[in-house]
Structures
1.
Amino acid sequence: MRGKEPKDESFGFFTSRLYRLFSNTFPSMKSFYSFIISDIANYRFSSMLDIGCGPGILDAKIARMFPKAKICGIDPSKDMIKQASALAKREGIGNLEFAIGKNTEIPLDFKFDLVITTLSFHHWAVKRDALEYIAGHLADGGKIAIYEFLKPEKGIGISGSHSLSVREANSYSEIPRLRPASVATEKGFIKVVLEKA
């Protein structure tokens, strides 16, 4: 008898709205978004995909920073995509689009310069397979940037299982079609970058 196939976490009607509220109000989330925005400002890209985009708050900020870039977000939750699409429409952000999708099912026939995932990677059921799949959606020289709360090597930490340790991050260094991961930590956050080989 085969076991159940692992599944990614998904958000429904109520939990997606709670997440949006949490993203906009909690100081730790505001600091996390600032950390990501300041890092992404160092990249040069004409196209970016956010996997696990949630309600689109971060993508709207990035789209305003890079008005000439194509910014896309995907999420397995139709409720998150509804919120994200409504945000883009409400704020009149023309270079931003959203679609239902996930780390192993990207519904866009496009090669991206940059693929990011923020506070989503820890939910992924098949991380190594997903990274290899995503590599196929990278343009030449494209990068995957994973942003998470930093998990201490001992104990649980403030964010519990919603985090990533340096040890685990370093274990994603032998993924086909990707160069070894570079890992950096700052202010309780972690960034993992893999580049197309």
2.
Amino acid sequence: MEQNNNVSDATIVITIDGPAGAGKSTVARLLAARLGFEFLDTGAMYRCVTLAALRAGIPLEDSQRVAELAEGLQIELDGDRVLLNGEDVSAEIRLPEVSANIGKIADNLAVRRHLTQLQRRWAQGKRVVTEGRDQGTEVFPDAACKFFLTASRQERARRRHRELLSRGIEITFEEVLEQQDRRDREDAARPIGALRPAPDAIQVDTDGHTLEEVTEILVRHVRQKLSQLDPDQPQPRQDRPTPPGQEDGA
């Protein structure tokens, strides 16, 4: 994969990777708010492609047709809203049908290359917190600060189960756990963008901590890292946390 990030000197990227349910999306949103950075929801991009392919009736195994579809999509991240060709699909991309099929899209090399370039262009000239599965290893290998969040499989499934129920999606804890275990196996074995911490990533176990507490841990690491990189650079502001977003990750 290309290693040129193609970003300007003003760009500062903080990556948060980890398995689904480790809290990375919520923590990424909270961290971005605390630091005054923008949040790049990479999982939403993959979910948009998945939703579009399902709507179009394209077999997800048809990598060429899916890639051609992806290249023609207009995907916009507008705060907490996700727009697909101008339509707000923020809720639809979180449905179980999309979650169950996103892995096939994430394994499509052409789609992954296309979305990687979109993510790099989106970050140009910005101060960004981004989360996913390979942000620190593949997409932004030169990121200023990298994190890898973990949690036990039971805790991750409990978080996901609560989230789905809160959105009115009826599903049992056992079903969530089964889906999660399958996704963990698939993520670890993927030929591209496999789930693994970057060698220089700071690993944080979120078990026994609220996501706000985890955010505080990351804030301290980021401020220390940025002060080491450039002692004269203004430090991120100290905003109070905003309400958490939705857990995700491609």
3.
Amino acid sequence: MPTPTLPITPDFSTAKQALTATRQFSALPAEAAEALVRQMIQRNYDSGQIICLEGEPGEHVWFVEKGWVKGVRTASDGREQAALFLHDGDTFGAEAVFSRSAYPVTVTALEKVHAWAVQGPTLISLAERYPALALACLEQLSARVMYYVQLVEDLGLRSVQARMAHTLLNYAELREGQLIIPRRQWTTLDEMATRLGTVRDVLSRALKALESEGILRLERNQIVVLDPKKLLERGKV
């Protein structure tokens, strides 16, 4: 597995900011937060660099300070299903650490990523010492379970167009009174298709169909939602 860029001298104030940006850990008591921050190791990754591999023993939990990563599950025939897309304020790896098992997905940096890693045994030891930290970890794991339940529902019960509509709404941002979905450099049709469990051609047709109906407008750097109500309806099909 490729090794990450060498860590720089730890800046614990920056580590604390990364920790408090993670919703489940934002309200930790000062003593617990300080103990955890002191164990966080800075890691920087380049675009395309693998952070952890599916099937490898779960040894670390990561807190994403800046940048996007994706988690992919690979079938025996080589087909990929994107399971996670995470960014600033998200965390991953806890499923493997607390179950003392292997990482369930391969996590790759989609762009330059700044993150903080905590060794699994260290996090478990701290969770045993600080009940508030244990509850924060439990809340994060529970949120991840609910996310996977939603993913199973999307893949098993929704059409491609419905999955796409649902995903677009989840990532829409309100800017100057208009809903838009930013298109980052790595947000290609192939990447979106992998995420939605389909292929490029099917996704392209679904997008063009929504555009022809006046629900979306596809632009170079963003997707503009012209009719949020209709898009919401399509997400329920």
